[in-house]
DNA sequence: ATATCGATCATTGTATACGCTTTTCGGCCC
DNA sequence: GGGCCGAAAAGCGTATACAATGATCGATAT
């Protein structure tokens, strides 16, 4: 699927962006937000990539005002970094941030498991299995972007079963950031979740065994974190003295 | 009802808002954000209060553009609610949201306790004791706003000791929202944390007893939640049939 | 030839202008 | 007298214009 999901035809329909043409504003903005967010999560926009307001405005056929709003939202979710007077760029997570994110996931996603095991329905199980299967398939056929997206969606969907919207939202953000972390510190070929892991987890949940699911999720997340190659590359302000004093 | 806590003298300094006068922009925006955020957390702006962009723009001496940016940030933190075409108002949390927020606090704040007990320093203890004492004093002298603010600050500061910026940030948001919840469901006179609770908690942490601190925090939060009077007032779309069919 | 300084250019920050929607108030009809 | 409809006003959504700042490239001097 090509990623031209933003409808470029819509802007030409009004004869050149007549101002004041209101109406489907909120929906369009949400769609643009999703487009950019997806592109980042799927690594089609890589960490460090600059996001110029003019360019985005032209691409999506709205003015810079709307783009800025979307960029600010993405910045609050820490998917993009807003540098004063320099503009927006895709966030390049530090090693510390990566550790924080995975520690947070460990605490929250594991803590949620018992409640999820209690509340999970047959419908949920069907949806989760479908996602897990599609993820495995994507992984096998080399569609990395799709696999990454499905993996994040799996964890997010799981959290939403808990019924706690606040925590589910938090997990969703953490998964988005994890995707960025994988882009920077992940080894090619071994990206994130082992596919059968998710299937195993579904099994524990179907059996209503929250404690095993919790323990398994813990190992699962620790395995992902362990698979990262966190070379503490201090790109900015290298210690020249130490480098040249040997 | 006019709150003049903002510095109005600063805006008159440039002779009437000359456009393009740049320079201290970011700092000023942050200050305005803090002003509004504080007013909400301290219950000086009550849930449901409308926040008109024009009025705020005039009050703070910047244009609506900047105000909108700040309002959107507050909306993402769920302190204000943005209704399309209707503008912004202070969020009135639902009973469900209140439950979610306290469940989240229970999980995260308790889960953080062992690590906090491990990392807490003498300096932290001094700061925490100071806050707890000031909170008790404010409570005694009837300064509700100050007490609420200090209570939220206490929990936030505590979380930051864990060293996990992501989770600390999450706790900060949860505390802000808790303040809103107290404004809607709290009983007057018995607001939030019992003051000596915080002192007891500090004691456990100083002793390095993370497990007792965790258990105590659990009771503490449950006590706050239990003190709420959550009458499930379904203001919007009341079920008239049920009401009049008896 | 290279380094530094200056000018132009590219890009963001902020304000303002204008259209559209919603609300409210007044008049009219029932 | 009360309710409904219409018009005016108020307030939000979006685009555009302008200014300031940081970056880049070129010229000049050493």
UniProtKB/TrEMBL annotation, chains A, B:
<keyword id="KW-0805">Transcription regulation</keyword>
<feature type="region of interest" description="Disordered">
    <location>
        <begin position="1"/>
        <end position="28"/>
    </location>
</feature>
<dbReference type="Pfam" id="PF07729">
    <property type="entry name" value="FCD"/>
</dbReference>
<dbReference type="InterPro" id="IPR000524">
    <property type="entry name" value="Tscrpt_reg_HTH_GntR"/>
</dbReference>
<dbReference type="InterPro" id="IPR036390">
    <property type="entry name" value="WH_DNA-bd_sf"/>
</dbReference>
<dbReference type="GO" id="GO:0003677">
    <property type="term" value="F:DNA binding"/>
</dbReference>
<dbReference type="InterPro" id="IPR008920">
    <property type="entry name" value="TF_FadR/GntR_C"/>
</dbReference>
<dbReference type="Pfam" id="PF00392">
    <property type="entry name" value="GntR"/>
</dbReference>
<dbReference type="GO" id="GO:0003700">
    <property type="term" value="F:DNA-binding transcription factor activity"/>
</dbReference>
<keyword id="KW-0804">Transcription</keyword>
<keyword id="KW-0238">DNA-binding</keyword>
<feature type="domain" description="HTH gntR-type">
    <location>
        <begin position="26"/>
        <end position="93"/>
    </location>
</feature>
<feature type="compositionally biased region" description="Gly residues">
    <location>
        <begin position="14"/>
        <end position="23"/>
    </location>
</feature>
<dbReference type="InterPro" id="IPR011711">
    <property type="entry name" value="GntR_C"/>
</dbReference>
<protein>
    <submittedName>
        <fullName>GntR family transcriptional regulator</fullName>
    </submittedName>
</protein>
<dbReference type="InterPro" id="IPR036388">
    <property type="entry name" value="WH-like_DNA-bd_sf"/>
</dbReference>
């Amino acid at each position: 699927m090509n990623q031209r999901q933003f409808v470029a035809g819509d802007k030409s329909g009004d004869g050149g962006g007549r101002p004041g043409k209101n109406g489907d504003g909120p929906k369009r903005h949400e769609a643009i937000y999703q487009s950019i967010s997806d592109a980042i999560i799927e690594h089609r926009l890589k960490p460090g990539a600059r996001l110029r307001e003019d360019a985005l405005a032209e691409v999506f056929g709205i003015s810079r005002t709307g783009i800025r709003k979307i960029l600010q939202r993405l910045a609050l979710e820490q998917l993009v970094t807003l540098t004063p007077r320099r503009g927006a760029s895709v966030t390049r997570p530090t090693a510390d941030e990566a550790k924080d994110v995975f520690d947070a996931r460990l605490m929250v996603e594991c803590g949620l498991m018992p409640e999820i095991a209690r509340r999970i329905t047959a419908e949920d199980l069907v949806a989760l299995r479908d996602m897990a299967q599609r993820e495995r398939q994507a992984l096998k056929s080399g569609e990395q972007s799709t696999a990454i997206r499905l993996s994040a969606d799996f964890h997010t969907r799981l959290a939403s079963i808990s019924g706690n919207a606040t925590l589910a939202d938090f997990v969703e953000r953490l998964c988005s950031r994890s995707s960025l972390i994988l882009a920077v510190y992940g080894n090619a070929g071994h990206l994130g979740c082992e596919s059968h892991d998710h299937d195993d987890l579904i099994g524990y949940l179907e059996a209503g065994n929250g404690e095993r699911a919790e323990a398994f999720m813990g190992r699962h997340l620790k395995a992902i974190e362990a698979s990262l190659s966190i070379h503490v590359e201090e790109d900015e302000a290298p210690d020249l003295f130490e480098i040249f004093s040997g």
